[in-house]
Structures are given as C-alpha cells and as structure tokens.
Fold:
Amino acid sequence: MRLASEPAAPALFTHLTFGHGHTGSGRKVMAYAPQPAVDHDRPMKGFRGIIFDVDGVLVASPHERAWRESMRDLMATKWRAVGSYRPEQFTTAVYQEYIAGKPRLSGARAALEYFHVPDAERRSLEYAEQKQRRLEELIEVGEFVAFPDALRFALALRERGFRLGAASSSKNANLFLARIQLDASAQAARAAERPFERLFDIFDANVCGHDLPHGKPHPMIFSLAAEELELPPEACVVVEDAAVGIEAAKSAGMAALGVARLGDEALLTAAGADLVVTTLDEVALEPLFNGRLTRSSADSLP
Ligand SMILES: [Mg+2]
Structure:
C-alpha cells in the first residue's frame, strides 16, 4: 500500500459533526500505521514532520471572545472603578498582537497592560480565571468550529506519510481536538485505510497544554514536539496563525508556515514566516518532500 500514490480526497472532510463526551474517556481509536511514503530511517533533505498550532489554525476557538467578554464583565462590575474602558477597544488586531498564542496568565497580563489597567500583575490571575470560566461555557455549548482547509491539509499530509504534531500552549486545545469528529460517512468509506474518528487521533505527537517553563515565542514547545516526532528541527514545518508562534518556530530552527485568516499577512511575514497563506489549500504538498515550502500554482490544485 503506497498511500502517496493515492489521489487526495479534498471534499471528504468538509462536513463536520461534533461529538459529546469524548474528551476524557472516549473510545480509543487504534493507532494508525501507514506504509510511509517517507523513509524515516534514511537521511534526506526535506520535511518529514508538520507541527500544528491549534487555536486559529485547526480550530476557530472562542478564546478571543472569552477574553473580550470577561474583560467587559470585570470592567462593568468588580473593576468598575479602575478606569475608562470601552469594550470596542478590544479589537481582533489587539487580540492578535498582544494575547494570541501566549499562555493564559501572560496573555491576561499583556491585555491588562495594553489597556493600562493598574496592578496588571496582581489582577492578571483573576482575569485569566474569569476568561477560563467563560471559555469553558462556550466550549460546552459548542461555540467553535474546525477549519475545513486545515483538516484537508492535515489528512492529505498524513496520507503521504508525514508525521503530525499538535503544539498549543492552551490547556483547552485537547478539549477541542477531542470534540471534533471526522465525518462518519467518509470514515466508513475509507475505514480500512484511515480509522480516525476524531481530529485528536491523527497526531503522532501531542504536546498541547504541557506545563513548560517558557511559552511562545520561546521555541521550547516546538522543540519538544519535534523530539516526540523523533525528527530534527530542520525536518519540521510549524503551522501557526500568531506572530509569537512564527517567532518560536524560527527560534527552534524550523520552517514556519503562517496562516493569515484575519488579514494579518504582514504581521506574520514580519515575524519571519517562510510562507504566508490565507488558506492551507494553497500549500503545495509534494515539494515538502524536498524541503520546499511553496504555494500551489493554480493548475496543480487538486
Ligand atoms: Mg494560534
């Protein structure tokens, strides 16, 4: 079975359903062991592992909304006397530049400092806790979606024998990954080759939410993911939507693929991304084998 020779099936995984109760004790799917298109034992120049950030890359998670709503609530209640905060100041651009990709507490502190809230250090814990409560409420009611292009990309890479990693600073990332079910009918059709039920199941390494001494832009989380994939950094591509994540990838000695879903191409390019796309459907798959991170030309799209 040579999976690399099989045509990609781009339309199969656009329909998603969300499961319930799979986050902890869900049925374990048997490990998937494809005949690799990449010979992992033979030294070669090229990429062999792709490491995904989760929020904003695989999942449109409600972090931004939770940060914004919890700030609004605190400022309207307990912190009313603190200053003249207006909720419309908390834009997506502010979120992307100061909070996205950071561990919870550093994100909270950065936001409070940005809005000139006094005693940011002291208040950051309370803000982070309020945000987490709001986030869990939103996850509970299913207020998030997976990006279909990211699922197509990840599954197409997997079919070609690349090793996949998940590396989010967020302790909630696995909640999302475990709740995203791959489409049941597509699964049944290809059951023999690809017995994945949930997005959570397609990763060879998952370092999401690990307690690490340094968050992004420190390279530690990606270095750990590469280690668990048993690959050297130069064989890995990191897929990121936040500037701090791009910086972390470059510091780790890896290639950085920026996904600019919010019109923030310039920010990702400035952070050092090797390629910036607006959808992962744009990325050419075959050149990755030769260590080239490039865009598909229009006539080579599947
Ligand atoms: Mg992200």
Remarks:
- The mean pLDDT is 83.
- The chain has two domains: 2-60+144-300, 63-140.
- The domain at 2-60+144-300 is CATH 3.40.50.1000 (Rossmann fold).
